[in-house]
Each structure stands twice: as structure tokens, then as C-alpha cells.
Amino acid sequence: MSLKRQLFLASLLMLLIPWAGLKFVLELDDALRQQALQQLQERGQRMANLAGDLLLGQPTIATPNALYASPAETPIKPDGHADDWPGYDEPDHLQPWQPAEPLPVPGAPHLRWQAASDGRHLFLLVQMQNQAMQLFQQNRPDQPHDRFELVLQPPITDLQQPVPRQRWTLRTSAPGSVNAIREDRQQTPDYRVQGAWRDRGAGWQLELQMPQPARGSLLGFQVTLGGQESSVPGTGIEPLPPLVQRIPELERALADQLGDGQQVTVVEPAGWIVAHHRHPATGQGPDFDDLSPVQVLEKITLNALRALIRLYQPEPTPLAETGHRLITGGLPDNHLVRRNDGSVWLATEHDLFGGRSLVLEQSLDQLLTVSGSALGSVLARSLLIILALTLVLLGYASWLSWRIARLQRLVSASVDEDGRILSPVPSARTRDELGQLQQHFSQMVERLQSYNHYLESFSRRLSHELKTPVAVVRSSLENLAHNSSEQERQQYLERAAGATERLRRILNSMSEAARLEQSFDQADKEQFDLSEVVAQATAAYQQLDADHQIRYQIPEAECPLMGSPEMLVQMLDKLVDNARDFTPEGGAIEVSLRRHSDHYQLRVFNEGSQLPEHAGVDIFGAFVSQRQGQSEGHLGQGLLIVRLIADYHGGYVEARNTREGGIDGVSFRVIIPVYRPETGSTL
Predict the structure, then answer these.
(1) Which of 88, 362, 507, 584 has its CA 20 to 30 A from that of 380?
(2) Cα distance between residue 278 and residue 269, in whole Å
(3) Alpha-carbon span 278 to 321, nearest angstrom
(4) 530-547 as b/e: b if 16+ CB within 10 A
(5) Key word Oxidoreductase present in the record (predicted)?
(6) HSE on the CB side for 347, CA within 13 Å?
(7) 183 in helix, strand or coil?
(8) Which of 120, 126, 127 is nearest to 71 (CA)?
(9) Which residues pair with 150 in a beta bridge?
(10) Under a CB-based contact definition with an 8 Å cutoff, are residues 399 and 430 in contact?
(11) Would you state the pLDDT for residue 230?
């Protein structure tokens, strides 16, 4: 089957895009939730550590009976009307009331209250239901009347001295403004505690303002109804409940750590919220009136997808929450929770000290927007895309077939039937996979050509090296047979023995690398100072070679190493011998040893001729030499031995052309891991 037909059949499979899109979005939604959960857990742990540090020294609140003060977002004027309190415009059941009785008896007197704070003042809004207001008669003070008693216990100071309680009493002879009477100061008026008392027909309402108590204070109040001369059930001042407030500095610190569509809540052991902040989601789209018809279709599709995806999602667990308390009761395994407003969140809970906890939540609407938008765009435009892609794929198949046939012709023309390289494959202009394939073919042909050249040069070098000693042995034996003089016969024998020794050295050189690899199994590693070994070897090079300038840079500290110092000296001998062969007379050879945090760098630099840019053959391979007609006996084994010794010590060797101080040359670097004597291991 041709490539065109295969791509045509493949294009028909795009009809599965709508079905695959739905499966993809469902998997994407699950993956996004798992990823978001992991990120939430990591971020929540960091925020829990931060919150724990900021809450050090703050008393924990484990009692469900407390007076909770919400933050006042707008200024509150204590005029008794309560129209400036947070949530005043909300339905009554959504307002943050604290009831005296969780389940009041219908028709019976019922007390509820709110508290708010603006940082300077504390505001109380107390509301009595199903009980008419009884005023205080100044000329008849003994007559029954409604009375409001307020008690404040400041926190204990650093000196651990008890602080006396502060008591106020409020009563009024007519609806309107009212001032408090300080009971603990001989019934003197306290104008710092003031407010307004309003008659509501079937009840009354008291709005009160007082100076902001210190954090950790206890604050309670008691309402006495005049007709009954008894306190309202559920209220009281013994024991005094704690005053719970938001901690602004904690909220500001946590707000900086939140991402888009996230909210964080810090709760006391009894569930009282001491910090809460929500970061709204960003990237909202344009208004509905500004949408195009296509965008309207996508919006409709997105809303349908949200409902569809939620059908496949696990059922979220409702949270027990009010405006001032949050009781998680342990999050479910799927970490999905539902708030009172119907929103669904991905939540993680992190324990703090003292029974406190931090709850970090991520809105699922933002995750659904990402996944739903992806599928909405696919479903709305998939049919048009299928037709367009079918035509594009057919045209692309034709172009692709032409390129493959062209590459086949180029490769066939570069090699003859006998395997000889006739011409290189030209480099590709494109950067796609076929272009890379053509580039690899070009490099492969170039390397094969270089390797053929390497085999031919090795054969010539070996023939050249063996030709002279074989000729000497042959001529010596022939002359030996035709001479009777003992002195001449001895000379020919010595010449034959010298040529035989040269043959032995050549053969030993060819097997030197193999013997070295066998010696690795029997070699014993020992600890030694690499800098001392290199310094001694370099000093010997300087004494034995007067034709070159051999310099050495030694590190200041010791360089401990576990290995074989003899092998490292042998490796350095090969590198320096190689450098001497390519360095002109009087040229510089630099040997340096540097210690880095995790490795040693042994470097040999020589000025002179440089390595070919495209050698085609690894210079650290067997029987590889860049010498052209140079001194005898070089079969390309030296750098192979260098690589083997570097590998034995856990390192590697590399070579590159470089320019230092205006001088061109070649740099060989051997990288060996640092040895730690205290741990007995290398890095």
C-alpha cells in the first residue's frame, strides 16, 4: 500500500476526535486534580510551617463557647440600626449570627449577637427576639427593666500578675444612645463604651462600641430581662468565653503564598476561624455581549461539559461551616469538599501545633475551565478541521513520498556495488526528521570514508614498520651464509638480533592495551596524593627533555585519590609523549592539575598542530594515529591506553583544539572523581 493511501486512511481516523476528545478531557480533569492535589499538599505544608511560626505564643481555643469578632470591612457607626454591618444585605440565615441557643423554642425569648472589629474598636450587635423591651425608670430604679452586663478579662502579662476584671452595665430609660456604667469603679460612666438601644416591637436591638481588647482577652456578657429577673438561657459570664478574632498579620503572610483560585483557612481546635483569605481566579473571559457567535457556542459547550465532567467526578463531601467556624471532621479520600454556597473545592488539611489546622483549597471551576475549554474548542471546530486536515495530509503525503525517493537516489549514488564510497551525501536544508535522516546518512558516509582511510593508513603504517626490520633480518642472514670471518659473522648476528628486538617491540606495542586491561583485574588500589605523583613525573620530564618548555601548575591543597599511581604515571607518560611529538622544538607543554568540588582535572596542553575538525574516527580508539610519516613505532595505542586508565579510575578523557595566550594548540583533559578519605568513597 502506497504512502498516500496509508495517510488517507489515517486521516479518516480523525472522525474519532470528538469521542477521543471527551475521553481526553475526562483523563485531563483527573490528571489536573491529581497534579493540583500534589501541588496543594506541597504548598499547604509550606504555609502550615509559616502559620505555625506566626502562631507561636498565641493561646489555643478549644472551647465551642466563644465570642467571635469578624473583621469590619466598612466603618461601623454604633447608632442601633445595624445597616453598616457585614452581611446586612444578605438573607438572615446567611448572616454571621451567634445564637445563645442552637435550637430556640418557637415563640420563646431568643438572644443572638454579632461581633466585629476594625482594629481600633470592638463592636457588638445584640438582638433580643420575642421579648418586648422594658425600660429603666430613673425615679423608680427598683422596678423590673432590661439590663446588659459586660465583663472583660485582659490577658495575663509577662509578669504573670493577675489583671482585675472590668465590668460594665448598660440600661436605658428611652430608646437611643446609651453609655456604660463602670461597675468596678464605683458606678462611674465610661464614655469609651457607648452605643444605641433600639426598640424593634417584638424585641430590641443593642449596638455597642468599645476599645479593642488585647489579643487573648476573655469577654462575656449577660442579658437580664426585667419581667423575669433572670438571665436569658445560653448567655452568661461564668466562665468567661474567649474573644476570637482574625489575625491580620497571619492573613497577610498567607495571602502572599496563594495562587489563583485558592483559599486558605486556619482554624482553632474548636473550629474557630482565625485566618481566612481567598485569591480570586484570574483570566476571566469577556462579557457575554462582546462574544462572537463561535465564542457563544464554545461557552454553551463549556457549561455542558462542566455538568458532564461533574457527573464523572467523585461526590464532594459537605463541610460543616458557619460564618465563623469550620469543622472539617477529616477530609475525604478524594479531597473534594462542598461549601455552603454550592462551590466545589479540592482541599488539603495540615495539622499545626496545639490542635490547630490549616485548610488549603483550590477551586475546581478553574480546573474545569481549562479542561472544558480544550474540549469545547475541539467539538466546535472539529468537523471543519477534519476536512482541512484530510486535504493537507494528502498533499503532505505526496511531498513526503518525493523526499523519501530523492533520499534513496542520493544514498544509492554515493556507494558502488563493491562498497566503495563514490561521493558524499549532500547535507539537508530542512530540520525535520527526514532532514535529520539525510544528515545522518551524510555523516555515516563521511565516517565510512574516514574509516576506510584509517584502515588503509594502518595497513601502510604496519607494513612500513615491519618492512625495515624484516629486510634487516633477511639481509643479515644472507650475508651470514656467505662470510667465513668470525668478526663479520658476529656483526651480522647483532644486526639480526637488533631487528628481531624491534619486531618484538612492535608486536608488544600492538598488544599493550590488551595486557593493560588484563592487569586491571589483578591491580590493588591504594590511597595516594595525586598532586605529588604528577609533580614528580613532570619534574622528570623537565630534566629529560631539554628541547621543550615543560611547565607544571600544582594545586595548593592535597589531592587524595584511590587507585594505582603507576598506571596514572603511565597515562601521563603517554600524554606527554604525544605532546612532545606534536610540539615544535622550543615549544611549550603545560601540565596542570586542578581540584574542583567533585572532580580533579589533569590537563596537558601543547602548542603546535591541531586536531582535524572532522577526523571521522575516535582518536582514543585502537590503532588510531594522526601522525603522517613521523617517527617510527607509533601504531595508535597511546591514547587508547590513556582512555583505559581514565576509565579504570572512574573518569574520562577528552581532547579539543584551543588557543591560549595567542598560541594555538591541543588540550587533553582527564576528569577523575574526587576521593573522600573520611567516607571512603568518590563523588
Answers:
(1) 362
(2) 22
(3) 16
(4) bbebbeebbeebeeeeee
(5) no
(6) 26
(7) helix
(8) 120
(9) 168, 221
(10) no
(11) 47
Cell numbers standing for residue 50: 509559616
- CA torsion 648→651→652→658, rounded to 10°? -140
Name the nearest CA neighbour of 609 among 633, 636, 628.
Answer: 628
Residue 499: CB atoms within 10 A of its CB come to 19
Q: Report how far Cα 482 is from the mean position of its chain's Cα atoms.
A: 87
Residues 6+ apart with CB under 8 A from 206: 80, 124, 125, 126, 127, 148, 170, 178, 195, 196, 197, 198
Distance of CA 635 to the CA centre of its chain: 52
Q: How far apart are CA 432 and CA 32, in angstroms?
A: 32
**Mean pLDDT in runs of 10 for the chain (683 residues)?**
64 66 71 84 93 89 89 88 84 81 79 90 91 85 86 76 84 90 85 91 91 90 71 62 91 91 92 91 61 68 68 81 83 87 89 91 71 54 64 76 82 76 77 80 78 66 69 79 77 79 68 63 80 87 83 85 87 86 87 89 87 63 52 60 85 87 86 79 62
Q: Give rounded-to-5 percent helix, strand, coil for the chain.
A: 40, 25, 35
CA atoms of 123 and 212, how far apart (whole Å): 9
Compute the half-sphere exposure of residue 285: CA atoms within 13 Å on the CB side of its CA. Answer: 15
Describe the crossing of helices 364-414 and 3-12 by its angle, rounded to 10 degrees.
170
| pLDDT for residue 462 | 65
Cβ(100)–Cβ(221) below 8 Å: no
Are the beta carbons of 677 and 561 closer than 8 angstroms? no
Q: Report residue 38 as a C-alpha cell.
A: 500534589
Do residues 587 and 551 touch, judged by C-beta distance below 8 A? Answer: no
Q: Distance between alpha carbon 206 and the CA centroid of its chain, in Å?
A: 55
- Compute how many other C-beta atoms are within 10 angstroms of the C-beta atom of residue 430: 11
The three grid cell numbers given for residue 354, joined into one nine-digit string: 496545639
DSSP reduced 3-state for 515:
helix
- What is the 8-class DSSP label of residue 213? P
Cell numbers at residue 95, please? 448572616
429 φ, ψ (degrees, to nearest 5): -95, -25
Cell of 587: 615549544
- Gyration radius of the chain's alpha carbons: 46
Q: What is the pLDDT, as a whole number, of residue 378?
A: 58
Q: How far apart are the C-alpha atoms of 225 and 536, rounded to whole Å?
A: 104
**Cα–Cα dist 245/453, whole Å:** 86
Terminal-residue alpha carbon distance, the chain: 56
| Cα–Cα distance for residue pair 278/260, rounded to 1 Å | 9
In Å, how far are 63, 66, 130, 352 from 216, measured between CA atoms?
14, 12, 34, 19
**What's the predicted TM-score (pTM) here?**
0.52
Quick one: angle between helices 638-648 and 565-582, nearest 10?
A: 150
Q: Which long-range contacts (CB under 8 A, 24 or more apart) does 409-413 make?
A: 410/438, 410/441, 411/441, 411/445
Q: Which of 114, 113, 124, 115 is nearest to 78 (CA)?
A: 124
Helix (H) or strand (E) holding 90: none
Task: Give dist(CA 2, CA 442) in Å, integer.
Answer: 27
Q: For 509, list phi and psi in degrees, rounded to 5.
A: -65, -35
Cis (ω within 30 of 0) for the bond into 673?
no
Contact 61, 215 (CB under 8 A): no
Query: Could you tell me how far CA 198 lies from the centroid of its own chain?
Result: 59
By three-state DSSP, how is residue 614 classified? coil
Q: pLDDT tens, 57-69?
A: 888 998 888 899 9
Q: C-alpha grid cell for residue 413?
A: 549514488
| pLDDT for residue 103 | 75
Q: What pLDDT score was predicted for residue 254?
A: 94
Cell numbers for 443: 555523516
- Cell 591541531 locates to 610
